[in-house]
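Before the break, one more example. Copy the sequence into your notebook; we will annotate it together after we see the structure.
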Amino acid sequence: MEVQIISRVTIKPSSPTPDHLRTYKLCLFDQLASPIYFPITLFYSARDGNPGMNRSDLLKKSLSKTLAHFYPLAGRIKDDHLTIDCNDDGANFIEAQVACDMSFVLEDPEVEVLEQLLPCNPLEHFPDNQVILAVQVNYFACGGMAIGVCVSHVIADASAAAHFLKAWAAVACGADNINGVVYDCSSLFPPQDLSIFYKVMSLVDENNNGKSSPEDEIVTKRFLFDGSKIAALRNEMGDELNFYHQTRVEAVTALIW
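Here is what the structure looks like once it is written out:
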């Protein structure tokens, strides 16, 4: 599959982060998180959007507005591994043209193919080693689109990453207010001096001498759900009292998780 990068820009928050929020303290669990990226790829068929809409501008502007609320994602992790400098340096935003239809990827999604839709290798950092958020928007020949997102696992787990994407989607659809998106856990789980721990881990990596890599220990599985089965699952999970009907993503995620 041929993927051609057509643009690379940095998206900064639409408004500057206030001085009193410029330093975000990492908690102990953040320090212990694997120094990798959490990858997510979202696929959109051509009929999911307005053909007359400039998708590129919409995604960039909405991401900028969302980063103003999720300001640590636009910052840089400091070398002390204790804090994030919320300096509004921004997120990497890449656009790419894919020389095939989206069905080629979805019908037989090999890991090597899916990785081409991401802005980086999830198991490796960017050259500057500090970027927290990166996005790659892939435009397929059929008009479909795939948005690959990589968030540093140091600051975000699956729940936090999903919360960010949901907020970005809401802003792109016209929402103005997003509240309560950044939480300080350092008061509950204070950061510790883990310099000795990092040195030991570095020595362990050196002793391995390249005999094994993170890829050797990762297993990837794919689950296929028939549309009718998902509909039945949603009906079974429906809340008759509150009339809340789960989305397909919520239903499948609840079943797997």
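The helical segments are 28-32, 55-69, 102-107, 111-115, 158-172, 195-208, 227-237, 248-256. The two ends are 32 Å apart (CA to CA). Try to locate both features in your own notes.
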